[in-house]
Amino acid sequence: MLPDYLQDPRLGDIKLLAVDMDKTLLTDDRGFPEGLFERLDALYEAGVVFCPASGRPAPKLQEMFSGHAHKLAFCSDNGACALWHDEYVFRDLLDHDLYREVLNFAAQRGNCACVLCAFNHVYMLKRDREYAGEVGVYYEDIIFVDSFDEVDADANKISLFFPEWDAEPAYADVYGPTFGDRLYITNAGREWIDFMNLGVDKGSGVAHLCAQLGIDEADAAAVGDTYNDIPMLERVGHSFIVANAEAHMEEHASWRVPSNNDAGVLALIDAILAAKGDRA
Question: Structure pTM?
Answer without folding.
Answer: 0.93
